[in-house]
Design a protein that fits this description.
Radius of gyration: 16 Å
Oligomer: single chain
Distance between the termini: 22 Å
Order of helices and strands: EHEEEHEHEHEHEHEHH
Strand content: 15-25%
CATH topology: Rossmann fold
Number of helices: 8
Strand order of the largest sheet: 1-9-8-7-2-5-6
Number of strands: 9
CATH superfamily: HAD superfamily/HAD-like
Number of domains: 1
CATH class: Alpha Beta
Shape: globular
Structural class: alpha/beta
């Protein structure tokens, strides 16, 4: 778990996080989208997800955090991954991520200060400016990194989500009980 940037107030902000939201393309994945012909004139979209991120999301759930996805694209791969990991909130096809975020915030009843979000590109900025803890992957756009409390050393699709979750859980004192399970 390494970060190229941690703001002075990041630990304080992480203490209250109850909901961890993520972008998908460029965050949960490396940003590449493979379009494969389906043999009937259409295409299948294929994405590659990090196992480490998946483990981190499971740890977040074990520690009592809610998790969610807000993404501009719609993909069966995202639906399948969210189901597999038990991600509670899945918002795909968002044309205005801030409006979608507001809908999620209102439905959850969780205030901005208790929500973390990790993004990588300009369309994530409005949410990153609102949440209590904002994070970006190492290969995010410069403007995004500059807006965040945390910037991971890991690029999207290579453990960045896990790094942020681990940071939150360590700060909240929930990491050691998770770790103890594997060291016994």
């Amino acid at each position: 778990m390494n970060f190229s940037h941690i703001s002075p107030d990041a630990n304080q902000r992480a203490l209250g996080v109850r909901l961890f939201l993520m972008d998908v393309d460029g965050v949960m994945t490396d940003g590449r989208i493979l379009l494969v012909p389906d043999g009937r004139g259409g295409v299948h979209e294929i994405k590659s997800f990090s196992v480490q991120d998946g483990v981190g999301i499971n740890f977040a759930h074990r520690a009592g955090l809610l998790t969610g996805i807000i993404t501009g694209r719609t993909s069966e791969s995202v639906t399948a991954r969210a189901i597999e990991l038990g991600i509670q909130i899945v918002e795909q096809g968002s044309r205005n991520k801030l409006e979608t975020y507001e809908k999620v915030r209102e439905a959850s009843g969780i205030p901005d200060s208790q929500i973390a979000y990790i993004g990588d590109d300009l369309q994530d900025l409005p949410i990153l400016h609102r949440t209590g803890l904002s994070a970006s992957v190492a290969n995010a756009r410069q403007q995004v990194m500059e807006a965040c409390h945390l910037v991971t050393d890991s690029p999207g699709g290579a453990g960045a989500v896990r790094d942020c979750i681990e940071f939150i859980l360590r700060t909240q004192g929930k990491w050691d009980p998770i770790l103890a399970r594997y060291l016994a």
